[in-house]
Every structure is written in structure tokens, then in C-alpha cells.
Amino acid sequence: MKNILITGGAGFIGSHVVRLFVNKYEDYFVVNLDKLTYAGNLENLKDIEDADNYSFVKGDICDEKLVDELFTKYEFDGVIHLAAESHVDRSILNPMEFINTNIIGTVTLLNVAKNHWTDTKGKLFYHISTDEVYGSLENLTDFFLESTSYDPKSPYSAAKASSDHFVRAYNNTFGLPIVISNCSNNYGPNQFPEKLLPLVISNIKNNKTIPIYGKGENIRDWLYVVDHARAIDKIFHRGKIGETYNIGGSNEWRNIDLVRVLCKIMDEKLERESGQSEKLISFVKDRAGHDLRYAIDSSKIQKEINWRPSVKFEEGLRLTVDWYLHNEKWLNNILSGDYQQYYSEQYEN
Ligand code: NAD
Ligand code: TYD
Fold first, then answer.
1. What is the tens place of the pLDDT at every residue in 239-296?
2. Does residue 89 register a pLDDT over 70?
3. φ, ψ for residue 32, nearest 5 deg
4. Does the beta carbon of 44 lie inside 6 Å of ligand 1?
5. Among 15, 62, 80, 86, which residue has the most ligand 1 atoms within 8 Å of its CB, making it the best to mutate?
6. What share of the chain in percent tops pLDDT 90?
7. Looking at the annotation, which residues are catalytic?
8. Residue 349 pLDDT > 70, yes or no?
9. pLDDT (tens digit per residue) in 156-190
10. Could you say which of 35, 47, 209, 325 is the most buried, measured as most Cβ atoms within 10 Å of its Cβ?
11. CB 255 less than 6 A from any atom of ligand 2
12. pLDDT of res. 340
């Protein structure tokens, strides 16, 4: 029996990780601590919310008293830390929230874990990070390795980089057993429609323009979210303490090419005339400090942990589009209120 704290489990990636752990490990008790910000949504976990080995706690990772009480009550063996402010554009509009959650929240969790884990045997603090901490690859033949120097360029990636440094510092200074993974861009069901793929799907469905920043030449390496959850499962169980693992899809796309593929799939699914969705593409002002290219070399995790992506991109895209088209209620609940306000601030000036 193991008790595990998963933070940010009501978000996009967190909900897939919670589902995987609750269903796969009946002898684990999973506590999901989530503040339910605009990005947290308990609808994501409807299918497992009544499971005997699962409990949800609404709360902030910056709330040291609450985190301490949870550690006392559950005597956690492991932490899988996903809670974060995760959207680059929002970090440009309002950096402070990113500093609070991503840095102060992470250090709060580290402190409480350090205080409770006087005997570190069998304990693990697993910090989920991003490839964006490595900065922007200007050369098309370079890849991010675990040894690549940090060079974050947005308030989001700077806050994540800072949290990674604190996690390593707690390992080096206090002997806290940690592991970190840095993953490329995820896509799949349950992603909040502020991120590129669900935004494009949602806008095409609603006949709204598709905003492409700059010339659409920026490159991202896309991974299906369930493959990321599987990697997290493997690293949690087989990762070496103190190590970092890069996780990527080996699947690089220029934004404009990816959006054109999505347009084709949407035309087919919505039974629209071929080429209709592409007409919605609109090139808009570039993101400030827009990183050109991210690309992961994931040979370490492939060799040492025997993980590789299992879902082909074409299949993952179709699964994703089908999910959004069949979960209209989920999407419509989000496309109101606060999101509208964010959307007009971000795109209409
Ligand atoms: P998300 O924005 O969809 O979800 C974040 C979750 O954290 C939400 O449920 C939110 O309510 C919760 N949260 C935010 N602040 C909190 C706080 N102070 N206390 C408790 N809960 C809080 O994010 P995501 O895309 O699922 O990303 C999860 C993690 O994976 C993040 O750490 C992110 O940096 C990392 N990551 C994401 C990607 C990606 O492509 N989405 C890629 C690599 C790494
Ligand atoms: P995003 O999904 O925000 O992820 P990240 O910035 O963390 O990589 O964006 C993916 C790419 O798509 C990025 O190069 C920015 C671009 N993009 C647009 O062109 N238009 C948009 O409306 C959004 C949200 C993103």
C-alpha cells in the first residue's frame, strides 16, 4: 500500500495521470490536491471520482498549513507534482501568479516533504517540468538533452526553471529524494482551449478565425497526453533518484503545417467542403519573445526506462478531434465567463 499526493490533478495532464494511477494501482491511495483555478476542472475526473482509492482536496499548494496537514494525515510515500500556471500567453499578461504557484508553491511542497520525510527510504518527490526551460533552438539540427543549459525566455519558463533549480537544490542540500522530467508540448482530450490545438478545434467548430502568431513558422514537438502519463508512471517507478529525464514525441511540426492538417481533419469530421476550415486562418501579431523551436532528444528515457511514444500523431489528432466534438458540454462550459474575457484581452487588441 502506498499513499501518493498528486498536485494539479484536475488539470489537463494531471487528470490523465490521476486516472492512470487510480485505475492501474488498486493498492495505492491517490490524493489529488488542486486549487481549481480556471484550468482545473473536476469534470475531467468524473469516471473515477467515486473510486475507493481516490480522494480530492480543493486547496492551494502555497498553503503550507494545509499541505502539512495532508502529509500528517496520509503519510505520503510519493508526490507527483503537476500543479502550475501553464500558459505562456497568460504569463506575459500576468507573471506574478506564475511566481506564486510555480515557484513558491513548489518550494512549499519541498519544505513540507523535507520536514516529514526524516526517513527517506521509499520516498520520492517527482517534479513535472517542461522542455521550455531550455529556451529556444535556433538551429534546426539541435536537440534538447538533459545536459542542455537552462535558458528560459518567457515568464512561464523562467518560473518553471526556477522551480526545477529548487527541486535539485533540495536534493543536493537536504538529501530529498527527487526526480524531474521535462516534456515537450502535449495534446489530447481535456486540454483547456487556450492552448493551440483545442483553440483551433474549438474555433473551427464555431466558425471563428484561427489566430496564428507571426508567420506560423515556430516549431513544437508534440506528444499525446496519455503517452506522457505512461512516461510519468514509468519514471515514478523506475527513475533513478536525482536524475532528469527528457520526454518528447520526436514529432516536430511548424505551427502553420499542423494547423493545416487539423483543418483537413475538421472539414472531414464536420462534413464541410474541403478547404473551408483553412479559410479561417488569420495571421496575427506575434507572441512577445516567441521561442522559435523546441525539440527533445528522448534517447535517455528510451534506453534507461524503456519508454517510447505509442500513439502515432495522425491517430492522436483524430482521437483528440473526436473527443472535442463528442464533449460539447465540457467545451461549452469553458467557452463562457472568464475565458471570454481572457480571449478578448489576448486576441482582440
Ligand atoms: P493545466 O493548466 O491544464 O493544469 C494545471 C492544474 O494545476 C489545474 O488543475 C489548476 O487548477 C492546478 N493549479 C494551479 N495553481 C494551483 C495551486 N496554486 N495549487 C493547487 N493547484 C493549482 O496544466 P497542464 O498542461 O496539465 O500541465 C501540468 C504540468 O505539466 C505543469 O507543471 C506544466 O508545467 C507541465 N507541462 C505541461 C506541458 C503541456 O504541454 N501542457 C508540457 C510539459 C510540461
Ligand atoms: P501553446 O499551445 O500556447 O504552447 P507553448 O507556447 O507552450 O508551446 O502554443 C503552441 C504554439 O502555437 C506556439 O508556437 C504559439 C502558437 N500559437 C499560435 O500561433 N496561436 C495561438 O492562438 C496560440 C494559443 C498559440
1. 999 999 999 999 999 999 999 999 999 999 999 999 999 999 999 999 999 999 999 9
2. yes
3. -100, 110
4. no
5. 86
6. 94
7. 131-132, 156
8. no
9. 999 999 999 999 999 999 999 999 999 999 999 99
10. 35
11. yes
12. 82
Q: Whose CA is nearest to atom 32 of ligand 1?
A: 82
Burial of residue 77 (CB within 10 Å: 0-12, 13-18, 19+) is: middle
Q: What is the DSSP letter of 60?
A: -
Which domains occur in the chain, in start order?
2-191+222-251+289-311 (3.40.50.720)
Of all protein residues, the one whose alpha carbon is nearest to atom 37 of ligand 1 is: 130
3-state SS, residue 115: helix
- Long-range contacts of 56-59, Cβ-Cβ distance < 8 Å, separation of 24 or more: 56/9, 56/10, 56/31, 56/32, 57/31, 57/32, 57/33, 58/34, 59/33, 59/34, 59/35
Sign of the CA dihedral 298, 15, 105, 171?
negative
Which residues 6+ apart lie within 8 Å of 54 measured at CB? 18, 22, 29, 30, 32, 48
| Rounded distance between C-alpha atoms, residue 197 and residue 203, angstroms | 10
Answer whether residue 136 shows pLDDT above 90.
yes
For ligand 2, atom 22, name the residue with the nearest CA: 211
7, 12, 38: which to mutate for ligand 1, most atoms within 8 A of CB?
A: 12
Q: Which atom of ligand 2 is nearest to the CA of 214?
A: 19
Q: What is the pLDDT of residue 245?
A: 98
pTM across the whole model:
0.98
Q: Helix/strand/coil (H, E, C) string of 269-326?
A: HCCCCCCCHHHHEEEECCCCCCCCECCECCHHHHHHHCCCCCCCHHHHHHHHHHHHHH
Cell of 5: 499526493
